[in-house]
Amino acid sequence: MSECAVINDKKAMEIIKTESGQEIMNFKFPMLKDSEHPERRVRVIQDENGEPWFVAKDVCDILGLTNPSETLTRLDDDEKADISLAEVSSNGVKQKRNRKLVNEPGLYSLILRSDKAQAKRFKRWITHDVLPTIRKTGGYIHATPEMSDAEIMARALKVADTTLERVKEERDRLLKQNVEISLKNVKFRKQTEAMEKPAPRSSTDTVGVAPVDHQANHAIVDRWAINR
């Protein structure tokens, strides 16, 4: 992954599109009351297969893992990836930064390494809220008090369009798969029928008796008649 996107920290929640049209979703996780930060965000990106990838720094901040780079070295290569993000800070400065992503197995590995009180709450929030919402709707609709009804409806329609497109792609994939399986079954059935079909026998063949060579028999009879 090597997409670029603009993340604006001023907004409570937003869905951002990368240069290729890929969406980045911001989820707000409510921290415990005694936490220094009342809430934290987790940025999520879906790959071409619809699987979510989480910005590792966001996850580590929530879990209290102060050295993300060292922590990520303990993950398998297929549990992490790289991405380039253009982030806008609170003072409006735009900077491009390389960020690490972790997939769902990598996320659970990070949770297990945390001894913070919110680790269990975070895991439950991920498994009971974030992931089911992403997989069922293709996106996460977050309405804030500042949003008008029209803005909420526009966001809902956008998510619905994304969901319908993903359903159509999945349906087409399954139809293609079914056709390929059917063709293989027909080919296998024809091969089986050809193997089970008995070989044709001559009309002179008799079960348990070798075929008779009539020409050879005539020659024997002729020699017998001459010798007499």
Automatic annotation (TrEMBL):
Domain Bro-N: 39-138
InterPro entries: BRO_N_domain
Record bears the keyword Coiled coil: yes
Pfam family of the protein (one): Bro-N
Keywords: Coiled coil
PANTHER family per the UniProt record, alphabetical: BRO FAMILY PROTEIN, DNA-BINDING PROTEIN-RELATED-RELATED
Protein name, as recorded: Bro-N domain-containing protein
